[in-house]
Design a protein that fits this description.
Layout: H1 3-21, H2 26-47, H3 68-83, H4 88-126, H5 150-155, H6 159-179
Helix pairs in contact: 1-4, 2-3, 2-6, 3-4
Length: about 180
Amino acid sequence: MGMRRIRTKMVWLLGLPFLWFAQPTTGLLAIGAALAAMGLLIRGWAAGTIRKDEDLTTSGPYAYTRNPLYIGSLFVGLGVTLAGGHWIWPTLFFAFYGPVYARTMSGEIELLTELFGQRFLHYAKNVPAFVPRLTKYRPEQPDLDGGFRVGQYMRNNEWEALLGAGAAFAFLATKPMWLG
């Protein structure tokens, strides 16, 4: 089973108990929503820039970090779990996020090295895997069509992350009302 399928199944496995037992507060909903919004912006920018299986993307957020989608996921996940109102949710999120995404990034290094060879290795040497660099990476060979495109965002199905986070926050925000 691929890491993407494992990540998806784990989100549902942990998501249902989270939604059932969450005890959101107005303050934590606001903090969580701000973090999730920042994560969705990062993910959206990355998804609208990356041309998966077409070229090594080194522009946009990929000029600062090799894994902006995963940084965005970190902020979205942290935001949603903080909004859940109990310390156990962010703790479980980090326990899930760390090992799963470390393994995912390791697999991507192998794949990208195989696909793009020295070009990827040079990029990886100059652009950190996770914590963004402060200055923009300027490769000798830029990617084919750098820049954000709404069509690319849609092709990469990033609207699903927006929809999922929106549904989670709508549920959490209204949960106190339907509990009576």
